[in-house]
Specification:
There is one protein chain. This protein has 325 residues and is of the alpha+beta class. It has 2 domains: 126 residues, no CATH class; 177 residues, 2-Layer Sandwich (Alpha-Beta Plaits), CATH 3.30.70. Strands 1, 2, 3, 4, 5, 6, 7 and 8 form an 8-stranded mixed β-sheet that branches.
């Protein structure tokens, strides 16, 4: 009984001592961790800063393999340094090394993601010079939808040509002719985009522009004719050659055309053909701009005059044409 009583009393005393002992151990453990982290913090920060500097110097991880190798060497050096410090806990030193190594690989991964983003954005900017912005977005976000059935739109088509350019270019050096053509086409493209259209294609010194597809454009006929009028005015300032412009409104089909590895986003339809025929008539009729009756009816009030019904090649019925007053 006495032994049992002593045992119970001893247990009671130990029950009072153990929490105190546990608290002391916990405090010692926390203090040790804090001391270890405090002493290794400069090394950790040094490794992290070194890695970030490496990323910056490598130009967005263009040398990502070399960066990964150097980061691993930094982590191993950190481990060796911590192991040499016998006063520190090796497991915690290893934790510090792994932290640096993990930071390095996370940085590599983030840099790769950023590099891909920059590459995609560069691709978007480049493609925007060839395609409408909505088509570029569709190509990156939902390419399968872009390849689906072409869509029908009601648009106004503008076809331009620089008269006698072939003869004019014969007297110029090839580079001079190319520079002139680039400047001329740049003026046209800027005017088209400024008024809400997009350039479907350049055909030598000719251009096919579309207003109203693939992005809907309210009163596309007025926007197209405003752009055409500005073209005549501004081209006179940079070119000794006269322009011919045909403007026609109607339905077209817009979508990807082609097979295999060669696709082109374009518009096709009788509306495009008629606009091209009108441009061809400008020289014979002596007018810079010819506008179809269909477009004229959509314009509303606009100073112009009729040049009478004209026979359009490829069509059985005549079409009344107008020109700027």
């Amino acid at each position: 009984i006495l032994r049992q009583g002593l045992t119970i009393a001893a247990l009671h005393r130990w029950q009072m001592v153990i929490p105190v002992f546990d608290n002391l151990l916990l405090w010692a453990f926390i203090t040790n961790i804090w001391r270890v982290l405090g002493e290794t913090q400069p090394l950790i920060l040094t490794n992290v800063v070194a890695f970030c500097s490496l990323v910056a110097v490598s130009g967005g991880l263009r040398l990502s393999r070399r960066a990964a190798l150097l980061t691993s060497l930094l982590a191993l050096a950190n481990f060796g340094y911590a192991a040499a410090l016998f006063r520190l806990n090796l497991a915690l030193a290893l934790f510090a090394a792994i932290t640096v190594l993990g930071t390095g690989f996370l940085g590599l991964r983030m840099a790769v993601i950023v590099r891909r983003y920059v590459k995609n954005e560069s691709g978007r900017v480049l493609m925007a010079h060839f395609l409408p912005k909505s088509v570029v977005e569709a190509a990156f976000e939902s390419p399968l939808e872009l390849l689906q059935q072409p869509q029908k739109y009601d648009v106004t088509v503008v076809v331009t040509d620089l008269r006698e350019f072939t003869h004019f270019a014969e007297s110029l050096e090839p580079q001079v002719a190319l520079d002139f053509l680039n400047r001329y086409q740049g003026v046209l493209a800027n005017l088209v985009e400024r008024h809400g259209g997009w350039v479907d294609k350049f055909m030598g010194d000719g251009m096919l522009a579309v207003f109203g597809a693939p992005d809907p454009l309210e009163n596309h006929a007025r926007s197209a004719l405003t752009a055409a009028t500005a073209m005549v005015r501004e081209v006179k300032q940079i070119s000794p050659l006269a322009m011919g412009i045909g403007v026609h409104s109607g339905p077209v089909v817009a979508g990807c055309l082609g097979t295999g590895g060669r696709l082109e986003f374009t518009v096709i339809g009788d509306t495009v053909n008629v606009a091209a025929r009108l441009e061809a008539l400008t020289k014979a009729l002596g007018h810079a701009v010819l506008i179809s009756e269909t477009t004229q009816q959509q314009l509303g009030p606009w100073p112009m005059r009729s040049v009478g019904p004209q026979v359009i090649r490829g069509r059985t019925q005549t079409l009344e044409l107008f020109t700027l007053a």
